[in-house]
Specification:
It comes from Streptomyces natalensis ATCC 27448. By secondary structure, the protein is mainly α. It is built from 22 helices and no strands. Helix 10 packs across helix 11. The structure holds the ligand CC(C)=CCC/C(C)=C(\C)COP(=O)(O)OP(=O)(O)O.
Length: 402
């Protein structure tokens, strides 16, 4: 079944989803607030013509409209081996936009030497398509590119340092690598005589270069509170990478609760956190930090990451190194068959998504317009993420990329 026909598949409506849609439809759109300096769009950036905008949930009338479309959960048809999941459909499919973002992302990776010798696999994985699907509230390829650079840099940190020995990862080096990589996003400020050494270290390693360059690009669209949020989320992600490295070096399988807590931090939170930056508005720091918002956002992000676990099982099975995913951890702890473990993992995913849906609906009632738009964006992110995983050759191809 094609991606488009899956998107168009009959949907299972949900009362809470309709409530959110109705609430959001009553509110006008949020005006862009994020800084966008003059000339920040590269030459050749695609114009935001009416025809392109029409399909997107942006602008004054867009918020209600998009929310009405995205607050529709469903048990969708999945790829081989992945059970039906409760997840919204992707809101749009714009292959031309995806292609443009992917091409620019590849040009950037080539320029900085990221994934040298493996760029065909990166091209095939189609992270440009992920950005197009997951951020339907902009059709600006440069904003999608900024988010794509950050995401690819974070993925590369995982591949180069954590779980791909063919790319040089080694558990003994992980902590040292992550510590230096952090300086790429939150610059080190040593006494003057050490500055050249730090600068050299940033340039010597493609992961560090990618992290620094991705953050610099996003800084064109984000204010300082949003950038601090992003740095924080990536620091937390690095804690998760370290946690996985510890299990790997000990040869230890975590408990299910421990793995789930891990998948909240070794997760797509840093991607989801860019939702307003890409959309062109600012979710106030106090609202992002509200524990109720954090709970909703992290539950959604964990669910999105479990989608990765489910779709990447085959790829991980083919890998030489020890791989961790929820079905494997459940099978070990609960002594069930792999199929049962997959079903139980899907049920956990669904519970997280339904809880997000319910709690986001409540938060939308009392929150700011920016929070409503952000929560709608998170919901859209879930749909785009699932659609991408179900079609990306990173997870479906027989000779799988790293
Ligand atoms: C883009 C981003 C924030 C990635 C960080 C976390 C990450 C690498 C994943 C959620 C993907 O998990 P995994 O390590 O299993 O990756 P692949 O399955 O190899 O794509």
């Amino acid at each position: 079944m094609s991606l488009l026909s899956r998107i168009a598949a009959p949907t299972a409506r949900h009362d809470v989803a309709r409530l959110v849609a109705a609430l959001l439809a009553e509110h006008p759109g949020v005006r862009p607030e994020g800084p966008e300096p003059e000339g920040s769009k590269p030459p050749g950036a695609r114009p935001e013509g009416p025809a392109r905008r029409a399909a997107l949930p942006t602008g004054p009338t867009g918020l209600g409209t998009s929310a009405a479309r995205i607050t529709v959960g469903r048990k969708g048809v999945e790829g081989p081996g992945v059970p039906e999941l409760y997840c919204p459909p992707a809101l749009r499919d714009d292959p031309a936009l995806a292609e443009e973002v992917n091409a620019r992302l590849l040009a950037w990776a080539e320029e900085i030497g990221l994934y040298a010798g493996r760029l065909d696999r990166v091209r095939a994985a189609d992270f440009g398509r992920l950005m197009m699907l997951a951020h339907p509230d902009t059709d600006d390829p440069d904003r999608l590119l900024a988010a794509g650079k950050c995401a690819l840099a974070e993925w590369a940190t995982d591949d180069y340092y954590c779980d791909d020995e063919s790319m040089g990862s080694a558990p003994a080096l992980l902590g040292a690598h992550l510590g230096i990589a952090y300086a790429a996003i939150d610059p080190a400020h040593p006494p003057l005589r050490y500055v050249p050494a730090v600068e050299q270290a940033m340039q010597d390693d493609p992961v560090r270069t990618a992290l620094r360059s991705g953050f610099a690009h996003m800084a064109r669209y984000a204010d300082s509170s949003q950038l601090a949020r992003l740095s924080h989320e990536v620091a937390v992600l690095f804690v998760g990478y370290g946690q996985e490295g510890s299990w790997r070096s000990q040869g230890r399988m975590p408990a299910v609760w421990e793995y789930l807590a891990h998948r909240q931090i070794n997760s797509f939170v840093p991607c989801v956190a860019m939702t307003d930056m890409v959309g062109g508005y600012v979710l106030p720091a106090a609202e992002y930090a509200d524990p109720r918002v954090r709970r909703a956002v992290t539950m959604a992000s964990t669910a999105a990451t479990l989608v990765n676990d489910l779709y990447s099982m085959a790829k991980e099975h083919r890998s030489d190194s020890v791989e961790f995913n929820l079905p494997t951890v459940i099978a070990a702890e609960e002594r069930c068959t792999p199929r049962e473990a997959v079903e139980r993992s899907a049920a956990i995913h669904d519970e997280l998504v339904r809880t997000f849906e319910t709690e986001a609906a409540a938060l939308a009632v009392t929150g700011s317009p920016q929070l409503r738009r952000f929560l709608a964006g998170v919901w859209a992110w879930l749909g785009g993420n699932r659609a991408w995983h179900s079609g990306s050759p990173r997870y479906t191809s027989a000779s799988t990329p790293s």
